[in-house]
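Operator note (shift B, R.M.): manual run for Actinorhodin polyketide synthase acyl carrier protein requested after the automated queue skipped it. Running by hand, logging everything below so the morning shift can see what happened. Input copied straight from the record, untouched. If output looks odd, do not overwrite the archive copy; leave it for review.
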Amino acid sequence: MKEFTLDDLVRILRECADQDVWTEIELGGDIADQDFESLGYDSLSLFNTLTHIEHEFGVELSFDIVYTAATPGTLVKVVNEALPNNA
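Run finished. Output pasted below as returned.
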């Protein structure tokens, strides 16, 4: 299985964002250490993001990650640790 990257996460975040706020969300530059809240993502958008990641990458993620992986960089790390070839 391929590695889950920040680019993968940005693509999925864009797909899962509420269309009303999508144009206000800035996902360019180095967002790895910015918290999701400052990027404009609420818990519902993140739950949708996790579900999308689970289906696309074949991983099982705890929804507690929404509260513990506060930044994109942390979420990328958690997903990579959960990938089947890393389990």
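Quick read of the result: The mean pLDDT is 83. The chain has six helices and no strands.
Leaving this for review. - R.M.
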